[in-house]
Amino acid sequence: MSQTISESVELQCTGSEAGPSYESLQSVFDKKSFRPTLNYSRPTSVNISFTIYAVLGVNEKSQILTTFLWLRLFWQHEFLTWTPAKCGAVEKISLPVEYIWTPDIIVYEFIDEDKSQRTPFVYVNHTGHIRYDKMLRVVSSCNLGIFNFPFDVQNCSLTFGSYMHTVRDVRLGLALPVEQILQNSLQYLETSGEWELLRIEGNPDILKFGIDEWDIITFRVLIRRRPILYVVNLLVPSAFLMLIDILSFFLPPHSTDRASFKMTLLLGYTVFLLIMNDLLPSTANGTPLIGIYFSVCLALLVLSLLETVIITHVLHRGTLSGSVPCWVKRFVLGFLAQLVCYYDASISDENPITNNNILHPTNENDAPRMAPPSPCHDKVINTEHKDLSLPVLELLPPEALCPGAERQLALINQNLRTVRQMLESRHQLQAHEEQWVQIGYVLDSLLYRLYLIFIGSYAIIIISVWCVWYNI
């Protein structure tokens, strides 16, 4: 019975004809609106394969992946069979695609107008096996994750299936193994732009919608971004700016150039972020890690400037206030100085002003002595004597005194006491300023080390995370 049916649908050719004629194919062309099967209770098997020729682009904001595929469809046309021996030994012919039935296989993720170049012909062999090569520029929706940018790997799906025919009419299968599809794509991939193809995974499935079921095949296409462009244009300049900020700590803390330099560096980093903002992907779902990285770097620059402001305030406090509190000296100049291995000989000097013999008499013999009155002399004080460490009255010979010399000596002693108090105040103020300077240097050294530890830890974590993601 099957042989009778096969012979009844076989194309007839005359012995002189080189293949089926147009007249013999006319009956097939008239049936192009009908699924080419002798039994409509039996579904038509359609096998598919594809080759990725190019990854044209990824739009993170619109969540769109654009690829260029070469789709190949295979199915059996039961009305297009002939015997080569009766048709001039012709085994394969090409026919216009619009004259025969073709399966309505589409990509379910397709969200744009099909602008692909149309393939006008299909190949048919004598057994009714048809091959249809179709070029597709697929603009598909994809759930793009940008958190790992620029070391991100995107996993997008391409679902092939019939638009109208359910599993009772069309069943899908793979014309080639998935591994072979991947090898062909890697071999013929023409573009070497921002994205590279990692692997392709595929599995058949059944799509249920209401009471109907559609046979589909879902392919998972994994692509990885080539990050060299973003590393050179984003990460390296940012790292250089952070390195310059670290080196700026070697500027003297009491110098105003340090604060202005850091402020200029902060302004330059802000301008850098504004210029490079177009290179960063943006979505409403989240922020990429590189955006967080830039924000943290900006915050570190602000903290660095704040540290300079604090140290400058500490250094100038010595000119505005008196002595340093004891607990501050014990904690900063004692504990913190040892913690950061900061050593200065002046820190352990509790009494920096020890050479006060000019103004402080050490015993009663060094105190000014009142000489007995004697005849007046023109030259009361020997102005050529320069050693003020001697008692003042010893500079005056006894015969140089006159009856009014006691009052003059009292006035001189009062003036000397005033000068002594002024010098003592000046030396004490200078000592307090030096202590505040030492406190400022110790705090600057401590904050600098904490800054280095935080930046180093942050850089190690970021680099490790990106390396793990890139090697997935």
Summary tags:
6-stranded mixed sheet, rod-shaped, alpha+beta, 4-stranded antiparallel sheet, 472 residues, Acetylcholine Binding Protein, Chain: A, 38% helix
Account of the 3D structure:
The longest helix is centred in the last third of the chain and has 66 residues, at 405-470. The protein has a domain at 2-226: Acetylcholine Binding Protein, Chain: A, CATH 2.70.170.10. It contains eight helices and ten strands. The chain has helices at 2-9, 22-30, 178-188, 228-247, 256-275, 289-317, 326-339, 405-470, and strands at 44-59, 64-76, 92-96, 105-107, 121-125, 129-141, 153-162, 170-174, 195-209, 212-225. The chain has 472 residues and is α+β, with helices and mostly antiparallel strands. The relative contact order is 0.09. Residues 1-8 and 348-396 have low confidence and may be disordered.
